Structures are given as structure tokens and as C-alpha cells.
Amino acid sequence: MRDCFKEEGCAKLVLMGDTTQFVTLSTLFQEARRMVLEVLEIGRKSKRSKQILRSTLKDMNSVVHEIQQFNEHLNPPSEDIITLIREKDADKDLMCKICSRNLWWFNFLPLLPLNKARSWHHKKEYIGADYKQVEEIKHTLSKVREILERINLENFKLTLKGVSAPIKSSFGVPENLEFVVGLEEPLSKLKTEVLRNEHCLSVISLTGLGGSGKTTLATKLCLDEEVKGKFKENILFFIFSQTPKLKSIIERLFEHCGYQVPEFQSDEDALKWLEVLLRKIEGSPLLLVLDDVWPGSETLVEKFQFQMPNYKILVTSRVSFTRFGSPISLKPLGHEDQMILFRHYAHLEKSSSSIPEELVQEVVKYCKGLPLAIKVIARSLGQQPYEIWQKTVEELSCGHSVLGSNTELFTCLQKFLHVLEDNPIIKECFMDLGLFPEDQRIPVPALIDMWAELYGLDDDGKKAMDIIKKLDSMNLANLLVARKNTSDSDNYYHNNYFLVLHDLIRELAINQNSQDSLEKRKRLIIEINENKVDLGLGETPQGMIHLLSKYLRWSVKQNPEQVPARTLSISTDESCTSYLSHIQPVQAEVLILNLRTQKYSFPEEMEKMSKLKVLNVTNYGFHPSELKNFKLLGSVSNLTRIRLDRISVPHLGKLPNLKKLSLYMCSNMSRAFENGTIQTPEAFPTLVDLSIDYCKDMVKLPTGVCNITPLKKLSITNCHKLKCLPQEISNLENLESLRLSSCTDLQEIPDSIGKLSNLGLLDISNCISLADLPEEFSNLRNLRGIYMTGCARCELPYTVVDLENLKVVTCDEETAAAWEAFEAMLPNLKIEIPRVDVNLNWLHAVS
């Protein structure tokens, strides 16, 4: 038996079992009803209150509906439910009678500016409302709404009653640890603190310089067998970063735990629900890691503190937070560990290296024990001749220590960028990595699209991948393959490839971009967060925005032939969803929008961006972002590539010059290709490449897609609910490549596929529900390659013997046995069985 809550004017409520739990909800509603009835009496004289009352009763109506849904679960007396519904309906009728006396008021009300409510007191002769009464009503109704919020919170608690927490694995812990040395002692200290049994909350602080290995140590802790043995699946790892988004963190945690994600009205509201969720884990040890916490975020960390036994919070930061107790300080590596780490990343062998030992030790000396500096410098010098090593030592001898501050570390790392001078394109590509938000994975396909237009790299992605591998080898970026598919080898556009940057490396890329004056930069990076704006010159007060934008416009006016920025990156949240109207970037060829808002409206200035070629819109919030004014893009004459990530796709309208469209984790696919006043062939006359990936709500491919006759490449991958393709797919007469991999619910391929006479490649890997291929499959006379790993239950028609140009089938052993039966009749056929770890871990949602 426990207290639920205590509110002024309300009796103390006690939960005592299932029936009493329902009675509690009923009692709460009765109290809210009593307060509304009191307000109704005032409402008879105040017309303003009627609209507020309607809204409140509407909220209460939804609460009663939820209580009805819980009826079967809680099994309360049926007469209580019936009585409650009748009382609610009676109140609704009463409200309708009151409001019906002056219906004209509600037609007129929306025309009044709501933000001028205080002026009503001075206009009583016009609207007949008493301001004092309105204020009293609003105060009373705020109490009602607070009760309703608490009812919702109690409803959620009841849904969790008796339900075991569905967390199945740790959340957010990085999987791949690089080569690590010298962390045994700090790891032992951390384990001692974390494994200590305590009856209350314990906050542990880990501090160290940027690049000293804090994240690596925290990851190693979470992967330790003793730690996993104690906390099991209750290990939660979040990257806090410079601008933490509490709602987004808690939303993703709810999703990971398998519960429906509530709609949080604020950070405070989200934290209330987080406590309810964590209480569900109460009784089992819980470890929460908040990585990369910046100064000023201490109060946010404190909001995660709930008094629970064996609840540990590990905070990593570059600064020491004394309010969390004495921190564990991560010291620089010792000399021996430095040498081991450096030799590993420089690929030096004592016996075969031509670099003198004294020179190696001289270089390592300037790294001052920072693992990040060691990795970058070692990889940049690996395989380089003696002269480059000697030049590097001379340059370092003129600089400062890399140990003192991040600025000095930048000074050191910048000296090693001279390795990129021999290939300016690689250096430009490195600086492009700063265009994407901190602590976020960068999709490789987005880079390939951008670099193809900016630097003329080949469209198949091979040259771009060579650059990415070069940056990875220098430790300037880490290439992450989320899941390896058998069909990835010839297609780098797969969304399984990502780049991950250390935050200091990202700052280094931004710092390189900032070397030129503002009006001469090739890239303009704008970060908007609440009351601050960052134009790469440091944080700027919101009031300076217009001055900076005027300066940019003046620069262009003074020298109209000068291009101030070929690439524009804007990161924004709900506080400011548009900035293009201030700077008018008419010269930009690439626009990257990094959103943390549920709605974004393209400004009218988009029509003036005549040189824009690539548009990349990514939503980093939990809910899909809705785009407004998308039709403006139809006027951008050079726009050839669009990528939308986690977007509620709007009606795309007419995009006459678009060649490539990528939709990743998007929703409302049917709306995107619906046939309205503009027919689809007319809307996309030049579109040759369409990619749809991880679109969870797509059950059937929109028929409108089949009317885009110029298409040569169609990729529909990881759309797990997709069950079938329309017969109209035969309209895609120019289609050369069709990828359907990992569409796990796909049950059949239409027989009309046989009319795709130009189809050369088909990928149906991991389509585990596909039962067979149609007889008409044999009409694909130009088919040269098939990927079908994980399609063991898919039966082959005998007519496959007519596929005379088929060269390669890549599949698993079981599927290979089916093809071997036709091998004698297909003399050019080669069956390949790749040696990969095929599992179903990729079925889980991609974050």
C-alpha cells in the first residue's frame, strides 16, 4: 500500500489492489468533475471560459476512453465504468447547452489574437468578458489539467503493473573497442566504485583531457564481464554532448525498453515518465553512463538522479564536477604504453623498420601520452619515408605541448594535416566532415552524393570510398559497418556504412574551415540552439544574427562574383527553424539541414538558390519531422540529389531535374508518390535512382513509383512490413538494378517482373518470407547477377534454365544446392557462397 499523490482540495488517495486502483482513477475523475462544475457556474457569465471548458472536457473524454481500455486489464466492477461514462456524458451535454446560447462567439473567437488576452479587460464593452473571472477560471483549470496529467501518469504505471521490463540487452554501449593499452589501473578503480553495493544512488565522475580515452574506458567498463554479471541488461549508455536533448534521450530509452513512447510536453514531463520507467527496473542493479558531459550541464545530470538502491551513474567529462564527489582522473599514458600504442598504429616492427628508434621516441615525446594524438600521428607517419619523419619532428619542436589544452592539441594535430596537402581533394573531404552534428554517425551515401557534385568523383562511390578508407587509416575518421550484406561489395550506397568522428577531430575539421575570413569560406556552418548562434566564430547572442546576416549580404554585394560558400550546413531545433531568410545563400551548391524539430518550413528564399545541386535533410529527433513548403524545391533548377532521413515525407510535387532520391527511415511513403494534379511521370522526368530504406510503415510499394519510367536503379531495402510489389512494376522498362534485400515480410514477386527486359541485377537477400520466384522470371534475358543469401525457402522455377546471360548467383549453402541442379544447363553460371556471419540481429530498429 502506498501514497499516490496529495493535492490541495483532494483527499489522500491510496492504491490497494486492482479494484481499488480503478476506484482511484474514478475518484480522481470525480474531483476533476466537481471542479469543472464549479467553473461552469462562472462560465454562464463569462463567454471566454467556454472555449477553455470545451478543451478541458475534450481532454477528460480521452481519459475516460483510456479508462475503458484498462477495464479489461484491471477487472473493476462494471457498474463503476458505466456510472463514470454517464457522468462524463451528462457534463458534455450540460456544456453543449451552455455554449449553444451564444454559438456566434465560437465562430468569432479564432479571429482574435490570443496573445492579447490582457487587452480584453479594457474592452469589456466589446466582448463582455471580465478579466478577473477569466484569470480565476484559468487558475482553476490549471489545477484540473494537473490532475489529468497525474491520471495519465497513473494510467501508465498501471499498464506496467505485473509486466516484466522487456529490456533484452544493454542500450547504446559501443560494440567495437580498438586496440587499447594502459587502462588497467583506472578500470580497476571504476569497477570498485561501480560494483560496490549501496542502498542509495551513487554518482561517479570520470575526468580527463579531450582525447585521453574517457569514452574508451567507459566502454571497456560496460563490456567487462564482472560489470555485465552484476547489471546484466540494465546498462544504459548515452552520449550527452554539448547540447543534450533530454526528451530525445528518454524517447529512445522508452523505445528500446519496448514500451509505447509517450508524447512529452517538456523536459520536465519527460523526466517524470523516466522515473516511472526506472522504477520498473527498481530492485535490479542499474548502470547509467552519461558520456561527454560539458560544463554547464551539471543540473541536467542531476535530473537523472532518483533514489534507488544499486543505481549508479557514471559521468565522463573534460572538466571536474566537484558536486558529484571526488572524480577519478584519467592520466596520460606512461612511456612504455605510449610506445606500444604508437608502434601498433604506425605498423612499426623493431626488426624490419628503417626508422631509427631515437626518431620514433622523439615523435612520441611530443604526443604527451594522449591516445588520440598518438593514433593520429602514428597513422599519418606509418609507411612514410625518413625525410617526412624528420620534418615532422622539426615542426613539433617549434610548437607547444599537446598536453596543456585542446587549443594546443589542435596545434599539434594541424601540423599533421600537411600529409593531406599532396591530395587537396582528400583535405577538402576531411573538412566536409565538420558539416554534420556532434556525436552523430555520418551516412556514407550522403558523403558520396555530396562529393560527386562538389569534386566530380565517380557516381558509383568507389573513389569516395578510397578517400574514406584513407581518412580511416589516418584515424581522422572511423569507418563503421553496421551490418555487412553479401551484396555490399559492389554498392557503397548501402546505408550500413557510416563514419564516426571523435568530437575533437570534428572540432579540428571546423577549425580548418574557420581559417579563412567569413566572406571567403567554402563552407558555412551555422548551429542554432535556443538563444545562441554559432557561425564558426564562437557562440553568438541571438540579437547579433541580423548584424551577421547583413555583413554576409554586404560581402556578396561588394563582390557578386565571389562565392562565399559552396556548402551550407544549418543545425537547428524548435527555437529557430529557419535561417535561410537571413543570409540568402544564393551561391550554395550543397545544403545540409540538421533538424531537431517536428516541423520545418522551407523559406521562400529557397527559390533563389539557383546553384543548389544537393539537399540533405536529417532529423535527429525521435519523431519524424514534417516538412512544409516542399513545393518550393520545384523551382530550384539545378537540384539533382535529395536525401531525406527520418522525415514524414510530404507530397513531393514536381522536381523536373532530380536524378537521385534517397528516403531513409521515412514515413508516409504513399503520400510522397500519390497521383494528384501532377502525374508522376511528369513530376520526375529525369529521376534514375530511387532508394527507400528502413521505411517501417510501408506495406505496399506506392503504385506511383511504377510510373517513374526513367528509373534505372530501384532499391527498397529493410522495409520489413512490405508484403508485395504492384503488378505495375512492369512499367519500369528502363530498370537495370532492383534491390529488395531484407524485406522480411515480402511474400511474392509479381509475374509482371518478366517484362523488365533491361534488368541486369536482382537482390533478394534475406527476404525470408519469399516462397518462390514466378515462372515469368525466365524472361529476364539480360539478368547477369542475383543475390539471394537467406532465401532458403524460396523455390526456383524450372524456367531459370533460360537465363542465358546469368553469370553469378551469390547465396548461402542451402540455396546453392537448388541452383546446382541447373548448373549443367547454365554453363556460364558461377555460384558464390560468401563466408559471412549471417544472423538476424539487423532486424532490430536502427538508431
From TrEMBL:
Annotated InterPro entries: Apaf_helical, LRR_dom_sf, LRR_R13L4/SHOC2-like, NB-ARC, P-loop_NTPase, WH-like_DNA-bd_sf
Pfam families with a match to the protein in the record: LRR_14 (PF23598), NB-ARC (PF00931)
Record-level GO BP terms: defense response
Keywords linked to the UniProt accession: Plant defense, Repeat
Domain Disease resistance R13L4/SHOC-2-like LRR, chain residue ranges per copy: 687-811
SUPFAM superfamilies in the record: P-loop containing nucleoside triphosphate hydrolases, RNI-like
Domain NB-ARC: 185-318
GO molecular function terms attached to this record: ADP binding
Name of the protein: Uncharacterized protein
Species of the source: Clitoria ternatea
